[in-house]
Amino acid sequence: MGRDDYWVAISREGELLGGGFFVTSSYVLTSTACLPGLRTREHVDLHTAQGLPLRAMVYELAEDVGLALVSVLPDPDADCSAPQADSAVKGDGWLAPYRPGPQRTVLRGTVDAVVPDRRDGGGRPLCVIELVGDPPSDGGEGYAGGPVERRTEGQDPAVIGILLDPEASGRLSGTGGGTLAAGALSSAFEVFEKLSAEYLVGLLSEGLPVPPAPPAVRADPAPPGRGEPLRKRREKASEVFETGRFMVREMNALAAENPLLARDMRPFYMRLANEVCDEAFRTLRGEPDDD
């Protein structure tokens, strides 16, 4: 996807528990199967794809759908941006970049079906993406919690879901063990309030805290942009948020014109909120653009 540091390995006391991936710059989505016996506010250790350690804690468990949200403590050395997200359709190629060890193969294959409302007993409905492995897999033991990317020719790579553990896959697909399945990202956005479109869009209208001022005396000249008065940087940050609000209004109008688009708009709201906040932070700090 042009970058592979959005997924993480989750461990506790040196024991690998499973995978996960950033869905915002502060939260990692994973499977409850990767947090056995853990409760909210208990700490876990994360390692990015590049090996950078991060501290985190269990934020919310949604046992009825087998999903969990992990809150990540900020680290100035970590770039924890969320990946591009999208929905899947039957026939899409897919790839699961997280693997539980260097000797394990990378799972890949084809989307067999997208079933919008599957339930595990009396739990909430989950949109399930049924997957076929190429070559056929034994159910993906140890891969749970990692992202599933769309890898279809002619389309940009994007995360379409979270790989479920074999037991949950079997129950939700109704085909028993040895089945590969993912929970669609749209379901996670519906389950967790912190990932809802309303919450993410609400971030666009909230003020950002002013970062700590740099030391009064610097041995080296300030980087380009940092010499600008704080007032000007605030004005530029306000322009960034106004652009974000304009895009939200246009996206809402598009969804209103075609209600069939409304459900699939959530990944784009998430992506917009992340990019607007990232750009506003860079502006306040006087940092140059990535380009």
From TrEMBL:
This is Trypsin-like peptidase domain-containing protein. The lineage of its organism: Bacteria, Bacillati, Actinomycetota, Actinomycetes, Kitasatosporales. Residues 131-154, 211-236 are annotated as: Disordered. InterPro entries: Peptidase_S1_PA. SUPFAM superfamilies: Trypsin-like serine proteases (SSF50494). Residues 211-226 have a biased composition (Pro residues). It comes from the Bacteria.
